[in-house]
């Protein structure tokens, strides 16, 4: 479970950085990621290819809940 918690924290941090990039600018968002020790390429990829942004997070097959 610790890995999942870290991944969720990284995802929330990356989403907030994306919000900061849209509202305050890219430099501010990259500095925020540096302070959180999250790789910058997460945000850069999201900005360069917005259609690919959440593609990998979604399940390929829906669950039967």
UniProtKB/TrEMBL annotation:
Organism whose genome encodes this protein: Telluria aromaticivorans
Protein name, UniProt field: Uncharacterized protein
């Amino acid at each position: 479970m610790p890995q999942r918690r870290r991944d969720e924290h990284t995802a929330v941090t990356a989403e907030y950085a994306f919000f900061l990039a849209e509202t305050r600018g890219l430099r501010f968002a990259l500095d925020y990621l540096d302070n959180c020790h999250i790789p910058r390429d997460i945000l850069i990829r999201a900005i360069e290819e917005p259609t690919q942004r959440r593609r990998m997070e979604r399940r390929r097959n829906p669950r039967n809940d």
